[in-house]
Amino acid sequence: MRAEIAIIGRAGGRKRMLLGIVGLPNSGKTTVFNALTGAQIETTAFSGAAAEANVAMVKIPDPRLDRLAERYKPKKKTPVELKIMDFAPFQKGQGEKGFPAKHIGDLRTCDALLLAVRAFEDESVPHPEDTVDAARDLETLLLELAMADLEVIERRIERIGDSWKRASKDERVKLDREKEFLEETASVLESGKVIDSSKMDDEQKTMIRNFGLLTLKPLMAAINIHEDDLGADAAGKVRAALPGADLPILDLAGKIEMEIAGLDAEERAEFLAELGIAEPARDRILRIAWERLGLIVFLTAGEDECRAWPIKKGDNAVTAAGKIHSDLARGFIRAEVAAYADFERHGNMQGVKDEGRYRLEGKDYIVQDGDIIQIRFNV
């Protein structure tokens, strides 16, 4: 998986999966953003609460989509896109107040978060704590996320108290259950532990669904290292220091990766070979982000357009149809499905049909990664 050139702009447009980058001051967070997107944003851009978040759309090429386009020669080829936002840094010990108010709403809408953590020494860029300690800073970031969530929960508990006075008997029973659950959740956050949604029942998940809790989002960490430390496994040392941190942690030499992102394909390959890097860190990060988001891709193909569509793992055929257009879901009859591996083996769809591998599936069919789908519908 490799990202194409990023398109820079502000948030907006149709819903795409959103990866947010957060970090402490002087962590090299915007350098990480540039490395992931190929952008060239000034790395000292966040000068105050009025600073705008950096936004980029990253196209995620898929060799399967390329192969379909070679076969169908469509007017348009549309890969999956991932929106990436680079937010102002957290100010230690201040919870939500340590984060620009204009950013917090967007932060809570993110589908996943990448925590940028500093592990490089640079006298020209002083560390807020005076010393560089990646494990300490990652632990601090996780605590800041928890404290920001705790403020949200405490505000809701306070509002429940106000609502309870005006509520009916049945409503009070429901409010009491919600308050009890939120108090338990607050206790978990105060102890520095992670909230585990897998232990929640459906009612509890509904209670917190609209809170946008940061600690419930898929998390991953990029340890921003100096190029001289390539191969030193800084990420492994952080994992060893924080055995309870349940998130993927990997190394990224931010400045070098930012240079790599700005090269064309041939130059990039030569540069990576010189450095002994198997693949750009951004490819690894985007792949892990995709996995953490629980996404798969299904494909549509034709002379007008070949396209990759992201959906959640476990989604059914009607959900896939609705991803294309709401009318297809509303009038769904059947899905015509071919596995990409079968198409690849034959090089065309006719061979798949001749082998009896082209299938008609109903609305309950669980879409598989790489399925090539056409929808039969009637509205």
Q: If you had to describe this structure to a student in words, what would you say it looks like?
A:
Helix 1 (29-37) packs parallel to helix 8 (254-261) and helix 4 packs antiparallel against helix 5 (169-190). Helix 7 (234-241) links the parallel strand 7 and strand 8. The chain has 14 helices and 13 strands. 41% of the residues lie in helices and 20% in strands. The protein is α/β, with parallel strands linked by helices and 379 residues long. It is flat and about 65 Å long.
What is the strand and helix layout of this fold?
Layout: E1 7-8, E2 17-23, H1 29-37, E3 54-60, H2 63-72, E4 76-78, E5 80-86, H3 101-109, E6 112-118, H4 134-166, H5 169-190, H6 202-208, E7 219-224, H7 234-241, E8 249-252, H8 254-261, H9 265-275, H10 281-292, E9 295-300, E10 305-312, H11 317-324, H12 326-330, E11 332-339, H13 340-346, H14 349-354, E12 359-361, E13 371-377
Parallel strand pairs: 2-5, 2-6, 4-10, 6-7, 7-8
Antiparallel strand pairs: 1-3, 3-5, 9-10, 11-12, 11-13
Helix pairs in contact: 1-8, 4-5
